[in-house]
Structures are given as C-alpha cells and as structure tokens.
Amino acid sequence: MAKGKDKDNEKVYTIPLRDAWKGPCKKRAKKCMYVIREFVKRHMKTEKVKVGTVLNHEIWKYGIKNPPRKLKVQVIPHEDVVWVELQGTKLELEKKEEKKKETPEKKKEAKESKEQVEKKEEGKEQAKKETESKPLSKKETPEKKEAKPTFRKKAKDTEEKQDPSEKLPSKAKLH
Length: 175
Hints:
The protein is an alpha+beta fold. The chain has six helices and four strands. Strands 1-3-4-2 form a four-stranded mixed beta sheet.
C-alpha cells in the first residue's frame, strides 16, 4: 500500500477489555493482549496483527493483575500486517528493503574475493601439514619423562605384627 493509503485506512477504536477481567487475576494482562488482537482481527478482517510497544507497556504498566479496563487505540494497516498502537503515539512502520540486483562486475568481485579466501585457507592447511611432518630437532622435542613403576614394599608378617609400644620413644613405653 502507498503512504497515502495507510493514513486513509488508519482508524481509531476504543477497545473494551472487560472480558479480561472475567478470568483469573494472574492472567488478566495476557488476556488483554488476546482480546485486543481478536478485536482488531474482527474489525479489520485480517489475520496478521502486531501490537506496538507503547500499547504493550500501557497494558503491563500496573502488572499482570491490574490492566486497564478500556483503551483507545489507532489501527494502521501496513502491507500484509495491521499494527495496533496507543492513540497519540507515532508509529514508525518498517519498510521492506528490496534486494538490489547484482551487476556482473559485482559478481566477478565476489568470486575473486572467495577465491582469495580459499587460497589463504589452503596455504594455512599446507603449513600445518609441513610442521606436523617435519621431525623436530633435539631442542624442539618436548622432554618425555619415563614413568617409573611404583612398587609397594610388602612388609613381612613379622614386621607388621610388632608391638606398637616398641615404635614409641623409650620414655613413652607403656608397661
């Protein structure tokens, strides 16, 4: 739609939100959003409805339990979507950017840049392979420590059965 048509189709509605107050108190603000969308779908005969940020903040301003009883909103159709915003706020609609057709020169530049990137990656891979395949000199090789096997010294049965008082210092012997 053209810019002029958007302003012609702009409508102002007062939406009663009493249906949201019929439900549980912990779901009232959510229910308000649903009521607003359904109201706009019914009056504008569309399926795609977007709620503006200012309207959303107004509904949630006093929490989930205390949304407003009614709101005055402006409804603006834009392309396929209908936008709903609090009356008096300016709504900046997003414009779809058309894809620019690439010229043959730009295509060639893109191909050349891709080829250069691929060449750099190939060079890096070759450098890695060369460093991996080269035998390292004595200075470059990391020192490997040989793991020494650990053996537990098994005490003979006689040593294990010694009297504990013999291990104590001479003054502390108990008799």
